[in-house]
Amino acid sequence: MRLDPDALFAPLDLGDRHTVLVAISGGSDSSALLHLFKSFADRHAPALRIVAATVDHGLRAASADEAGMVAQLCAGLGIDHVTLRWQGEKPATGIQAAARLARYRLLDEAAQKAGADIVLLGHTADDQSETVAMRHARGFGDEFRRGDAGMAPAVLYADRTWFIRPFLATPREALRDHLRAVGLGWIDDPTNRDRTYERVRIRQDRPDNTPDHRARLADSARAAELISSFVSRPAPGLLRLDPVVLESLTALRLLLAVAGGAEHLPDAERSEKLVAVLRQEKARATLSRAVIDKRHGTIWLHRENRGLPAPAELAVDAIWDGRFRAVAPTAHAELIAPIGRAAADFAPPAPPGASQALVLAALRAEPGLWKDGAFARPATPAPLRLVLAPWRLFLPSFDLAPAAALRRLFGLSDLPPSPWRDHIFRRP
């Protein structure tokens, strides 16, 4: 299989971009990514600056030497290189998940420093097949086929940096053939053979799972349509849903996660049971830290008044209750805490169909600024700004439509468009 850099990278919109970051570990996939992308850029975007970044997790004695080898490779190709070190204490359990989060954080920081909003990643068709197999093994494959979509070709990190996977339809062996043809070697990470890790076990069992993103995209589009047309925000912290929204379980699950500040969507089984309850004329339930209250043909959602954060100062970028991000530090002697009992002093009138008690319940769980034990004012839009909890860090391009609908609902700024020219996903 001969690889054509134009076919791999021409669908990327590089028009107004001056710098692109390429993540390279020294393995075959990322080494081929760097070489192929440079070949493409030399011919089509000669003014584009390429910065290669290697994350040294510090988990193996050889990792520092390997980062040095990658730096030498980059120097030979005339590409700037930086080594990013994961410093600090490492967790005793869940090391791979923690390393993944650290890797994205470090690459995002490096991209921001370099003036780039794109990071290229070397995930291959083999990685994609393994991912689908892992999700099937965990029982996610039949969940509206969300798991069957596999890894997204583009993921937006923290609403600002796009992580792009150009090789999701490219086999690993084709990349290795390319490296052999141009005389470049690669580093084999011994952890890729360690069956302690789930992905390694799946890989060695040679899964053959073709991803199917069509159902996921159709499901997301329907959810976005219903959210845009049948959901409103009549009072702080309070969402109004027309029962037609129940036609999309994904729309309901997203709204529950956003209202409750939950990082993960409620599972499909409990969500389906909730839908059955909400078919009744009157109902009240809780799920994903959200209260669901149906009365007079309308469904209301708000954060439940349990498990709310204790009063605290917040640094910039800190997350409050999964629902808000600090965009400015708290002032001296000011604390962020739920509005609580102070809600009665300034709550807006109840919208049609809702009681004043419902408005107060929603407002009590919203964040407020407190000073010397007294309520000062609501903490939004500063120093806190609302975030959509399920996509607080990672927004896959499969979910761009419902994310955009929810951002409009909450009055948030538009998302930066995906660098793939169709702005949704890369068709292999």
Features:
428 residues, alpha+beta, Rossmann fold, 2 domains, seven-stranded mixed sheet, five-stranded antiparallel sheet, 34% helix, globular, disordered C terminus
Count of distinct structural domains: 2
Characterize the largest beta sheet: strand count, sense, and whether it forms a barrel.
7 strands, mixed
Q: End-to-end distance, in Å? A: 15 Å
Q: Nearest-angstrom radius of gyration?
A: 24 Å
Taking pLDDT < 50 over at least 5 consecutive residues as the criterion, the unreliable ranges are: 424-428
The oligomerization state is single chain
Mean pLDDT across the residues is 90
Q: Give the helix level as a range of percent.
A: 25-40%
Specify the structural class. Answer: alpha+beta
Number of strands: 18
Name of the level-1 CATH class of the largest domain: Alpha Beta
Number of helices: 12
- Which overall shape is indicated by the principal axes computed on the Cα atoms? globular
- CATH topology title of the largest domain: Rossmann fold
